[in-house]
Description:
The protein has 454 residues and is of the alpha+beta class. It has helices at residues 2-6, 28-47, 63-68, 71-74, 164-169, 171-178, 224-244, 292-301, 327-338, 371-385, 398-407, 418-423, 444-453; strands at 10-12, 24-26, 52-54, 76-81, 88-90, 97-103, 110-116, 137-140, 143-146, 156-159, 184-193, 208-218, 252-256, 268-276, 279-290, 307-308, 315-316, 319-326, 339-342, 347-350, 361-365, 390-392, 412-416, 425-430, 436-440.
Amino acid sequence: MSLAKRRGFVFPGSEIYGGLANSWDYGPLGAQLKLNIKNLWWKRFVENRDDIVGIDTALIMNPKVWEASGHVATFSDPLVECKKCHSRYRADTLPGFSVVKMTNPKTGGFGWELSSGPDARCPNCGAKGVDSFTEPKAFNMMLKTFIGPAEETANIAYFRPETAQGMFVDYKLVADSMRLTPPFGIAQMGKAFRNEITPGNFIFRTREFEQMEIEYFIPVPKTDEDWQAVFEQWRIAMHEWMHDIGLPANHIHELEVPKDELAHYSKRTIDFEYDFPFGRKELYGLAYRTDFDLTNHSKASGQKLVARDPQTNEEYIPHCIEPTWGVDRTFLAVLCAAYHEDEEKKRVWLSLPPRLAPYKAAIFPLLANKPELIEKAKGIYSALQKDFTVAWDDRGNIGKRYFSQDEIGTPYCITVDFQTLEDNTVTVRDRDSATQERMSVDKLAEFLREKVNG
């Protein structure tokens, strides 16, 4: 977190006013790293595939969308309050406590039953046991706002808690305009908002975050094997993505979500968990949503959200498999995986994959007071800048410049020295190994292109 702030990756939100709890801004290098992650994802899953198209839907939708999707009724966490200090917590995250979700057979609604172990206590004041807390109440996590000049019930709207519903609502428009028949997918990247009770762990859990999601529509499965085959394809694709962005396989774990813990729309869900420094936590998710969403929106809107079988000409409501990625959690996992310290050499570096690194290379003149070196280095910098994000650095000695570029994850440092003026070669230093090699200036662009795209 210290490096992220000092080097311009992540800043505390509204810091000059004392900040805002769990609000974070992405600085110059963080914004570029985040953009590189999103661009790589879009290239991989939209531009490089014939069966997926992308859209960009509104942050605020008709409130009826969230009624039909079940979010108004069920998108809740169990909230408890300490009777002694009045601190409020999400019950299922309280150390020493356990929560069981209970369904009311008369109303069809649900609630929670709180129980505690011998070490259960309030994290704030130390009050012990379940009797020290109120009964769990449903806390709806959607952020509420109002449309229009009057803050009245009739004008209530919500900031979207997920990007998925925009894709379901636009399903027929996309299918008709692009002439698509299942199997095909709709992809979207964008902001989502959740009024979390207990956000925290840096940028891991925040009230404002960004998602990358795909709703992959398939014909009605005739057997379980039909949807399971597609589900497996996406499971493998998500592992391949994690490998390519540099996440170590031994830090990744699959959690098969138990049936009694599945979301209301899901028949099967896998959580991909990652070993963060603060513990093993959910990184991504993969869910089989059946035809729940399109069926509910079709009923609520009165619109036919159907596909037509090209062989039989019969209409049907497609089923959906949803792989979902968190942009901010990806960013955090990538930083954690890339962060290295060498206490003996007093060296810190980010071993970011070159395709994700904010700068692909940094160009140095050996000395900042030699016009001929500056001119030559500026020429190389300008030439490479046409195709790559590159940094210019002429401050201090070469060692300090290496140290600075290592900390921000720049894969290669290119130094222009007096030999460059004689034979048009430069020194190229590798970030991870700290080894150097001489290379012709004419080969730099090809070298970087191979490393970045390889």
